[in-house]
C-alpha cells in the first residue's frame, strides 16, 4: 500500500486534486471579490471605501474586534492555565465545551445572547435599572465577537503550556525566584507565541462575524453598524460593487493578520 501511494502517478493526482480544490474554493472566490470591487472603475471603488457610513462601520468593527481579542487573550490565557495545570471534577467536560462556538451556528450564539441579555431578560432589566444598555449597543457586539472567537487563544496556548519543561520552573524556584517571577520570566515567554497568534486569529475572525452580530447590533450607522452588516445591507440594496469594495478592506486586513500569525508561529518555533 505504501509503495502504491508513493508512486508518482498517485502523488501527482493527490497534488492536482489539492490544488484544484484550493483554487475553486479559495483562490477564485477571493479573486472574484477583488475583481468585482474594481469592476465599475477605480473612482467608484475609492468612493465606496471613503463613504462616511462605510468608513465608520469599518473603524467601529476594528475597534470592537480589537476589544474582543484583548478580552479573549486575558480570559483564554487564564482558562488555558486552569485546563493544563489544574485537576478538578468536570475538567474534561470543560475542555470539550471550549470548542462549542465552533460547532454552533453563529446565529444560535446571537440568539442566546439576545435571550440572556435582552431587555426582557432579568440581566437586561437589572442593567436597565442601572441605566445600562447591553443589547443593540456595542457591549452586545463585543460579547458576540468574544463568543464566536472564544476557542482561538485557548487552543493556541494549551499545547505550549503542555510542552513547558517543569524542570525549568523548579530550577527558577531553587534559585530563589517567587511564583510570580517564575511565571513572568519562564512561563509567559513560552506562552507568548500562542497568545499573540491566538489573539490575532480571534481579531481576524471577529472582523468578519455576521450571524451572531446581526441579531444583537442596533445597526445604527456610526454607532452599532459593523462592516459585515453594512456589506449585507449594500448587497440587499443591489450595490454589490460597494459591498465588494468594503469586503476588500476586510480581506486585505485579514491577509496581513494571517501573515503576521504565520511569522509569529514560525519565529516561536525557531526560538
TrEMBL record:
InterPro entries per UniProt: CysT_permease, MetI-like, MetI-like_sf, ModB_ABC, Sulph_transpt2
Membrane topology listed for this record: Multi-pass membrane protein
Localization in the cell: Cell membrane; Membrane
Primary site of residence: membrane
SUPFAM superfamilies to which the protein is assigned, alphabetical: MetI-like
Source organism, top-level taxon: Bacteria
Residues annotated as signal peptide: none
Bilayer-crossing regions: 12-36, 57-82, 102-122, 134-154, 210-232, 244-264
CDD domains: TM_PBP2
Limits of the ABC transmembrane type-1 domain: 58-261
The entry's keywords: Cell membrane, Membrane, Molybdenum, Sulfate transport, Transmembrane, Transmembrane helix, Transport
Assembly and oligomerization: The complex is composed of two ATP-binding proteins (CysA), two transmembrane proteins (CysT and CysW) and a solute-binding protein (CysP).
Family classification: Belongs to the binding-protein-dependent transport system permease family. CysTW subfamily.
Functional note: Part of the ABC transporter complex CysAWTP (TC 3.A.1.6.1) involved in sulfate/thiosulfate import. Probably responsible for the translocation of the substrate across the membrane.
Protein name: Molybdenum transport system permease
Name of the encoding gene: cysT
Amino acid at each position: 500500500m505504501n509503495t502504491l501511494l508513493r508512486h508518482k502517478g498517485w502523488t501527482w493526482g493527490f497534488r492536482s486534486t489539492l490544488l484544484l480544490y484550493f483554487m475553486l474554493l479559495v483562490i477564485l472566490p477571493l479573486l472574484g471579490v477583488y475583481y468585482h470591487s474594481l469592476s465599475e472603475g477605480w473612482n467608484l471603488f475609492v468612493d465606496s471605501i471613503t463613504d462616511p457610513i462605510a468608513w465608520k462601520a469599518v473603524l467601529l468593527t476594528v475597534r470592537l474586534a480589537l476589544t474582543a481579542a484583548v478580552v479573549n487573550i486575558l480570559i483564554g490565557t487564564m482558562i488555558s492555565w486552569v485546563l493544563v495545570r489544574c485537576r478538578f471534577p468536570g475538567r474534561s467536560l470543560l475542555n470539550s465545551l471550549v470548542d462549542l462556538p465552533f460547532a454552533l451556528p453563529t446565529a444560535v450564539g446571537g440568539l442566546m445572547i439576545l435571550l440572556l441579555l435582552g431587555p426582557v431578560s432579568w440581566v437586561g432589566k437589572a442593567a436597565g435599572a442601572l441605566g445600562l444598555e447591553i443589547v443593540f449597543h456595542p457591549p452586545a457586539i463585543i460579547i458576540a465577537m468574544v463568543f464566536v472567537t472564544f476557542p482561538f487563544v485557548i487552543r493556541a496556548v494549551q499545547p505550549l503550556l503542555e510542552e513547558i519543561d517543569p524542570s525549568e520552573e523548579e530550577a527558577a524556584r531553587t534559585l530563589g525566584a517567587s511564583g510570580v517571577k517564575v511565571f513572568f520570566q519562564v512561563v509567559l515567554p513560552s506562552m507568548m507565541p500562542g497568545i499573540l497568534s491566538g489573539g490575532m486569529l480571534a481579531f481576524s475572525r471577529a472582523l468578519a462575524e455576521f450571524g451572531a452580530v446581526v441579531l444583537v447590533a442596533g445597526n445604527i450607522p456610526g454607532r452599532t453598524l459593523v462592516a459585515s452588516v453594512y456589506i449585507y445591507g449594500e448587497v440587499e440594496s443591489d450595490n454589490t460593487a460597494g459591498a465588494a469594495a468594503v469586503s476588500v478592506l476586510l480581506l486585505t486586513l485579514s491577509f496581513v493578520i494571517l501573515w503576521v500569525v504565520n511569522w509569529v508561529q514560525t519565529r516561536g518555533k525557531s526560538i
